[in-house]
Design brief:
- It contains 3 helices and 12 strands; from the N terminus they run ααββββββββββββα.
- The strands form 2 sheets. It has a 6-stranded antiparallel β-barrel with strand order 1-2-5-4-3-12. Strands 6-7-8-11-10-9 form a 6-stranded antiparallel β-barrel.
- The chain has helices spanning about 20-40, 45-115, 305-310, and strands at about 125-135, 145, 160, 165-175, 180, 190-195, 200-205, 210-215, 230, 245-250, 260-265, 275-280.
- It starts with 19 loop residues before the first helix and ends with a helix.
- The chain is elongated, with a radius of gyration of 44 Å.
Length: about 325
């Protein structure tokens, strides 16, 4: 067979078509065109929405094992936390039950001792609840305003407390509101009683930007330690006895000074307080003092000189 008659074209299997460079340029231009068209005209948006709709069931099916593993771990973690919380709650409940029993025992013992000594029972303290309206705008003072005033029977000097301890004292009364000066104010002072040593003192505010108090006029060698609880003594005629005032936070004893520098941490902080209890001053609940009996008039005594001067014989 002559060579000229042979078919020199490659079979279809070995045909390569366009070159690789031509394909790269074409598809790059197509991709660039689609990106610009999608950005400007949102041409591919319907296609993307349709594709997402079609693939949504598949995505959900593939996420099921992941959610099972994550949910199982969260369940086990939550179950462990719930068991720990239950255990802590049971311990706290047992501690509270022990404290309640101790308080009841002390109350019974207190009544028996008072009856044995013939002492009068503690005065019942009249009180009324109030809501904190706002804090005073003065940055150099620590004062609050409550929604109880003169119309509700609030008087100046009334103690203000919450469930933790003493907050302050009413210093100004208006018809529908009252101003409360906190114990941490620079002008506040309150008599205290150390619950451990029964030592009396006076606590003053105005330290550390209104966040701490100081116990003054305490001797450097006094028996006072960090952690001691200071309560109201009740001898000032304002605060009922036994209310928590502060705890001793720091004691500095200097040899060259006669008094110790004692910093206190208030028992009740005003930050975040919404409701308080306004107590009636203790002086208004005490019985009136007995009226003083008039002194007998002195009887004049005659002397021998007086008789002689008057010309009267003895």
């Amino acid at each position: 067979m002559p060579l000229g008659t042979l078919d020199r074209t490659p079979p279809p299997f070995f045909r390569q078509g366009y070159s690789a460079l031509t394909k790269l340029v074409f598809f790059s231009a197509l991709a660039l065109f689609l990106m610009v068209a999608d950005t400007r005209l949102s041409v591919v948006a319907p296609l993307r929405v349709g594709l997402a709709t079609v693939l949504a069931p598949l995505q959900r099916a593939l996420l099921v094992p992941v959610e099972l593993v994550s949910g199982g771990s969260d369940y086990l973690r939550g179950l462990n936390q719930a068991l720990q919380s239950e255990d802590a709650g049971r311990k706290k409940l047992a501690l509270q039950a022990e404290r309640v029993a101790e308080a009841e025992r002390l109350a019974i013992e207190n009544r028996r001792l008072r009856a044995l000594l013939g002492l009068a029972p503690a005065l019942p303290v009249r009180s009324q609840a109030a809501e904190v309206l706002y804090e005073a705008a003065d940055p150099y003072s620590r004062k609050l305003f409550v929604n109880r005033g003169m119309n509700q029977g609030i008087v100046a000097g009334s103690p203000v407390v919450n469930e933790v301890g003493v907050l302050g004292q009413v210093t100004r009364v208006y018809p529908l509101s009252a101003e409360v000066t906190l114990l941490t104010d620079k002008g506040a002072a309150i008599p205290t009683l150390n619950s451990r040593t029964q030592q009396r003192g006076a606590a003053f505010g105005g330290l550390a930007n209104g966040s701490a108090m100081e116990l003054r006029f305490i001797a450097a060698n006094a028996d006072i330690h960090v952690g001691d609880l200071l309560q109201t003594s009740g001898v000032d005629g304002v605060y009922p006895p036994g209310l928590a005032v502060a705890r001793v936070a720091q004691v500095e004893r200097k040899a060259e000074g006669g008094f110790a520098r004692i910093l206190l941490e208030p028992a009740a902080l005003a930050d975040g307080v919404r409701h308080v209890l306004v107590l009636e001053p203790l002086s208004l609940q005490l019985p009136p003092p007995p009226a003083a009996e008039p002194a007998p008039e002195p009887t004049p005594k005659s002397t021998s000189k007086g008789r002689k001067a008057a010309g009267v014989a003895p």
